[in-house]
Amino acid sequence: MMKRIFLLSALVLTALLAPAQQALWEGAQVISPEIHANRTVTFRLHAPKAVKVQVAGDFLPEPGYADLVEREGVWEYTTPQPLEPELYSYNFVVDGLKINDPANVHQIRDVRSVTNVFLIDGGRADLYRVNDVPHGSVSKVWYDSPTAGMKRRMTVYTPAGYEDSGKRYPVFYLLHGMGGDENAWSELGRATQILDNLIAQGKAKPMIVVMTNGNISQEAAPGETSAGYVVPTFQLPQTMEGSFEMAFPDVVKYVENHYRTLKNKHGRAIAGLSMGGFHAMHISKQYPDLFDYVGLFSAAILPDRQVASAVYQDLETKLKVQFAKRPALYWIAIGRTDFLYQANCDYRKLLDEKGYPYEYYESGEGHIWKNWRIYLTEFVPKLF
Amino acid sequence: MMKRIFLLSALVLTALLAPAQQALWEGAQVISPEIHANRTVTFRLHAPKAVKVQVAGDFLPEPGYADLVEREGVWEYTTPQPLEPELYSYNFVVDGLKINDPANVHQIRDVRSVTNVFLIDGGRADLYRVNDVPHGSVSKVWYDSPTAGMKRRMTVYTPAGYEDSGKRYPVFYLLHGMGGDENAWSELGRATQILDNLIAQGKAKPMIVVMTNGNISQEAAPGETSAGYVVPTFQLPQTMEGSFEMAFPDVVKYVENHYRTLKNKHGRAIAGLSMGGFHAMHISKQYPDLFDYVGLFSAAILPDRQVASAVYQDLETKLKVQFAKRPALYWIAIGRTDFLYQANCDYRKLLDEKGYPYEYYESGEGHIWKNWRIYLTEFVPKLF
User: Fold this and answer.
1) Would you call B18 and A368 a contact, using CB atoms and an 8 Å cutoff?
2) Of chain A residues 205-224, which have a CB less than 8 A from chain B?
3) Which of B39, B119, B140, B317 should one mutate to test binding to chain A, selecting the residue with the greatest count of A CBs within 10 A?
4) Residue B45 with chain A: CB contacts under 8 Å
5) pTM of the full structure
6) What pLDDT was estimated at residue B240?
7) Helix (H) and strand (E) counts for chain B?
């Protein structure tokens, strides 16, 4: 009894898996991407039968593709120049078929696209990486929204030390764009890492960050509801028609009843990207006593919108009330090539004409996550 | 001022993205997988230039591959028979290159493989789907492990109602296998859905579930540490050499200091799969006063292991102490074709010879997630 010696190794484990399982486990053996010390990056794909292999990435100049070259079945491409520090996304295109890099398990979904990611360290991008600093907790929580008539899923970040401090914390409500969901800011947005790092560096106050789902017809992100593994889509019913804004106090109520929060205007901020900027703009003026800090990141400002909701009516009257209450910060950011640039200029002109104070941050490029991460790193240190 | 009408639609949004971004957004237009009413499933891939396309899946008979047939550039395969209710994994193989299905964003990583998933409803698999029931919260939390000398990440499930009840809850510690991490049970293991559903049906008591990282040299899953986007691996230093088991009381201490728990043996359970079953076996006998419920799922039982750790010494003496304290449940489960089947038989023989009571559950098939999900659904209703 108990005399047999079993040697268990990873090799034994994989070798003895059932064949059906084995078929799923055979993986690529190349290293990709390989980030060199000089910040150039090599991409590799083992595809002996392919005729043409390209990499599509947001680090490449327009049109955003580069050809890989084949040698003994392995296709390879090295960036000619070092890449600037940043979180980058890419895919391969094999004979016209867009695929993920099978050698890189690190992938992030953005609406209905799944892209591989890699990070070039340095500069601002060091705020996007996991560093050896105290980490906050990230929770997926279901809150009750009586206004929406459903339980809804959200992501809540509580800063390192929250569990033990006994203190009350300010709350930052952070909203996603069209097609996004409650996972967007904590994944491509790197909100968790940005908050951990800014707080550890003493550049931001410890705060709770609440990342909601801005699609009021959805309980939760695709795959997280009883609808099953649905295909994510941009076009949802009840998007930017007032329902999300009207139901927003349910979120605040849940958060303030379940977390140790500062329950006053000075302790609340709201910001969002694109559609979320539109939401933040309308929510903050609809409830002018709720938020002392407002951030519009590439906001989808849509004046004279032909939507019946009371939320969008009497814009100028509501802005007058909001600014009469002197928000601590009204912050607008946009990229110079953003298709919403002009709409944001027009909106700033309105604020200027009325003498409503705001801060403005203009970046290069357009309607992309790179900008939204930058805006988050700029906005958070100004809060509370 | 404010006279321009901006019509923002999803089309405008996508059309105006920068070209580099656009390259990442071009997606497959086919529907795949399509689950038909009769539970057959059709897989599709748009790949006009491919010569041979296969699907590799755990629903296919050995060797686990099936050929797709091409018509006008779209490759297609429909299962000849309805599939039994289950969570299935698959990939495509295009001219020898294993890829994910670009039309299906629902993917789960298992060690270093990323596979697409789909779910056939019905039977036990209804426990794996998100149903319209109250949902618990799932949190990624960093706990302090003085024994390991680091902060470590874990997944904590708190049942629906936890936030408001004011009650104390029992705690189930659920451990992963070799190469896995603190994400494994909540992703491929469907632990969140299984707990939500069993609790909603009244078949399991509301409980907290703590899913640790069993690789003591790791702070957290690949990509979640300051090491960056590393390639996951089976072979880690300090695996199954006693350190994780010795540091386990740090986990219990953190949980009991930060959650409303029943702080006694009757309120604690521990189970794990494969390496996690090995861990659960050794932890429960090393600390015989901690856990009243023990589950070994396809446990990597390795008698006479040539490892110096005190944890593995005096097996029979420690088992004698453990069973003298009459654990409420000692549960062993294994699949008939598991490569660890004989080791588990031998271990059961030892328990039988000593007269130590245990419950035994034998399933078909082998060392696969399908079995571990089944074992979880069988084990959880027996707890507390």
Assistant:
1) yes
2) 222-224
3) B140
4) 97
5) 0.94
6) 87
7) 9, 18
**What is the token pair recorded at A273?**
């990207």
**Nearest C-alpha neighbor of A62 from the set B29, B10, B17:** B17
For chain B positions 283-322, those within 8 Å of chain A (CB to CB) are: 300-306, 315
More confident residue, B5 or B180: B180
- CATH node for B137-382: 3.40.50.1820
Cis peptide before B33 (omega within 30 of 0): yes
CA distance A284 to A252: 12
| Partner-chain residue, chosen from B24, B134, B229, that has the shortest CB–CB distance to A91 | B24
B64 closest CB neighbour out of A5, A22, A151: A22
- Give the side-chain half-sphere CA count within 13 A for B156: 26
Summarize pLDDT for A289-342 with one digit per residue, the tens. 999 999 999 999 976 666 778 899 899 999 999 999 999 999 999 999 999 999
d(CA B372, CA B110): 14
Residue spans of alpha helices (H) in chain B: 10-15, 19-25, 162-165, 191-200, 243-258, 275-286, 315-324, 341-354, 369-379
CB contact under 8 A, B114 and A94: no
Q: Chain A within 8 Å of B142 (Cβ-Cβ)?
A: yes
Chain B residues in contact with A240 (beta carbon < 8 A): 8
Round to whole Å and give the CA distance between B65 and A55: 28
pLDDT tens digits, one per residue of B307-319: 778 899 899 999 9
Q: Looking at the complex, does the CB of residue A281 fall below 8 Å from at least one CB of chain B?
A: no
Count the neighbouring beta carbons within 10 Å of the beta carbon of residue B94. 25
The span from the CA of A60 to the CA of A93, in Å, is: 14
Using only C-alpha atoms, what is the Rg of chain A?
23
Q: Where are the domains positioned within chain B?
A: 27-120, 137-382
Interchain CB distance below 8 Å, B349 and A1: yes
First to last CA, chain A: 67
Identify whether A61 is preceded by a cis peptide bond (ω within 30 of 0). Answer: no
Scan for tokens 């940005």, then name that residue: A194
- DSSP class of residue B326 equals -
Measured in degrees and rounded to the nearest 5, phi and psi for residue B40 equal -80, 160
Q: How many residues does chain B have?
A: 384
Distance from CA of A89 to the nearest CA of B (A): 8
Tell me if domain A27-120 and domain A137-382 are identical in fold: no
ipTM for the complex shown: 0.94
Contact A179 B10 (CB under 8 A): yes
| Contact call for residues A195 and A376 (beta carbons, < 8 A) | no
Q: How confident is the model at residue B177 (pLDDT cuts 50, 70, 90)?
A: very high
CATH of the domain spanning A27-120: 2.60.40.10
Q: How far is CA B227 from CA A135, A138, A209, B152, B281, in A?
A: 15, 20, 25, 14, 31
Complete DSSP assignment for A166-185: ---B-EEEEE--TT--TTTT
Q: Please name the residue of chain A whose CA is at the shortest distance from the CA of residue B113.
A: A25
The gap from C-alpha A367 to its chain's centroid, in whole angstroms, comes to 13
- Give the span between the Cα atoms of A201 and A131, in whole angstroms: 11
Nearest CA-CA distance, residue B384 and chain A, Å: 25
